[in-house]
């Protein structure tokens, strides 16, 4: 029933016996039977998604770190998924693993496996995207309609230092690409959109040392409660974003907010990720970037696998409990499930406004040193490390206020830092990579 498709959109379609060559690839839009609702765990079961069997979710960047985990959780929750990825920072084999894990899950649950289709496709390549969207167009007398019920958009460049060196590459892909993409989606009547944003939009607001509330960074004037329990109005704009990558995320949010105002048919959610870590508990998915990693946990993994001799801890003189920087580390499976929660609320038309931002974080901070110590404890290995100067552009403290996503999406992170470290260790064990 389930199906996995590896197709180069620009390559000729696989020819069936007797069939002729087509100018555009043909897309299989068949879907297996999907029950009207599926529980994928006790918590998200509360959301009771009604997943019509003929609907699909389009996921851009569906094979990357967060994209692959979200694709897996979507399949577990009963959604048919079309994943597109240009493989610039992901591997095609990830799709097999997602398929394996989702199939196993449904086998155990006794539920039908939804369909996963994967295409090697750049989300900016509109010419190639159109045949796929055409294939999912449904009959309608008036406005365009599609069997693609929603889009989760991950595809973007995300390396901070690279963005400083090559800003136009970032503005072109992340911002210009988004404009052409949503314009095209809109013309096919696909107007439910989940955008992958980042806590980086808070810029230097993070230095306040208090959990970051969504209403501190807004795209229209918004009221917020101050410390004295009185209200003040926050004006739209950004504060002290330190790099082009961060600015692309803020600009994309602003564009999407304007789009939602101009056309009330759009339902748009911007999810502001804090620091995603860990991997699926199976150990079969993980953070496997093609580019040199700069984030803390991937660097720690490089030390654990012997590729780096030690970890450089950037800054030990921050105003924090042990002098190292504090972040809100969120397990990637929790983060992925946050997307399902947002999609479910958006598809039911239950968003408070048709553009809404949500933090995806735990609401708790851990210092860099705490992360190192937790990983040592879980792995029972010593991690060589040294203290070095602060990294340019870093802030000392960045932690989410988690109430809005809990109140409005009925979603909270459940997994701990230890869980994330244990899952990483498990993944390294089964791949035979650990070296310490
Ligand atoms: C970074 C990005 C942020 C992006 C996020 C995605 C910067 C300035 N910000 O956030 O825009 O949304 O990743 O995950 O890069 N650290 C070390 N040694 C290392 C690597 C990191 O000490 O080798 C420290 C950093 O200085 C920081 C903490 O670990 O204090 C977390 O770093 P990182 O994982 O890179 O995430 P952020 O900087 O929070």
TrEMBL record:
SUPFAM superfamilies: NAD(P)-binding Rossmann-fold domains (SSF51735). Pfam families: Epimerase (PF01370). Residues 57-350 form the NAD-dependent epimerase/dehydratase domain. The keyword Isomerase applies. It comes from the Eukaryota. The keyword Cell inner membrane does not apply. Gene3D superfamilies: NAD(P)-binding Rossmann-like Domain, UDP-galactose 4-epimerase, domain 1. GO terms for cellular component: cytosol. One of its GO terms (molecular function) is UDP-glucose 4-epimerase activity. One of its GO terms (biological process) is galactose metabolic process. Its cofactor is NAD(+). Keywords: Isomerase, NAD. PANTHER family: UDP-GLUCOSE 4-EPIMERASE, UDP-GLUCOSE 4-EPIMERASE (EUROFUNG). This is UDP-glucose 4-epimerase. The lineage of its organism: Eukaryota, Fungi, Dikarya, Ascomycota, Pezizomycotina.
């Amino acid at each position: 029933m389930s199906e996995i498709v590896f197709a180069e959109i620009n390559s000729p379609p696989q020819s069936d016996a007797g069939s002729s060559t087509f100018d555009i690839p043909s897309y299989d839009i068949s879907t297996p039977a999907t029950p009207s609702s599926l529980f994928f765990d006790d918590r998200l079961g509360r959301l009771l998604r009604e997943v019509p069997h003929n609907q699909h979710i389009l996921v851009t960047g569906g094979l990357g770190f967060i994209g692959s985990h979200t694709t897996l959780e979507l399949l577990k929750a009963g959604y048919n998924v079309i994943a597109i990825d240009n493989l610039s920072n992901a591997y095609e084999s990830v799709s097999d693993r997602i398929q394996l894990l989702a199939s196993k899950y449904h086998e155990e649950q006794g539920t039908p496996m939804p369909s996963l289709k994967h295409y090697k496709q750049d989300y900016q390549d509109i010419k190639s995207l159109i045949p796929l969207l055409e294939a999912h167009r449904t009959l309608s007398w008036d406005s365009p309609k599609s069997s693609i019920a929603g889009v989760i958009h991950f595809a973007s460049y995300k390396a901070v230092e690279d963005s400083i060196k090559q800003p136009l590459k970032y503005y072109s892909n992340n911002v210009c690409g988004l404009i052409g993409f949503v314009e095209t989606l809109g013309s096919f009547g696909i107007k439910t959109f989940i955008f992958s944003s980042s806590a980086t939009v808070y810029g230097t607001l993070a230095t306040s040392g208090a959990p970051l509330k969504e209403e501190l960074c807004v795209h229209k004037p918004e009221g917020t409660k101050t410390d004295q329990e009185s209200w003040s109005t926050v004006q739209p704009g950004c504060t002290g974003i330190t790099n082009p990558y961060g600015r692309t995320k803020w600009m994309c949010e602003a564009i999407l907010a304007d789009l939602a105002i101009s056309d009330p048919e759009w339902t748009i959610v911007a999810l502001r990720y804090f620091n995603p870590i860990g991997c699926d508990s199976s150990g079969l998915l993980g953070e496997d970037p093609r580019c040199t990693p700069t984030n803390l946990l991937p660097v720690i993994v490089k030390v654990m696998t012997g590729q780096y001799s030690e970890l450089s801890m950037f800054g030990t003189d921050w105003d924090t409990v042990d002098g190292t920087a504090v972040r809100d580390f969120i397990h990637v499976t929790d983060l992925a499930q946050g997307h399902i929660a947002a999609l479910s609320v958006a598809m039911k038309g239950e968003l408070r406004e048709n553009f809404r931002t949500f933090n995806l974080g735990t609401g708790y901070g851990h210092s860099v040193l705490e992360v190192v110590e937790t990983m040592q404890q879980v792995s029972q290995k010593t991690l060589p490390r040294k203290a070095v100067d602060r990294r340019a552009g870093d802030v000392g403290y960045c932690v989410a206020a988690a109430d809005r996503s809990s109140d409005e999406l009925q979603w909270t992170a459940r997994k701990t830092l230890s869980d994330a470290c244990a899952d990483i260790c498990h993944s390294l064990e089964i791949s035979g990579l650990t070296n310490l």
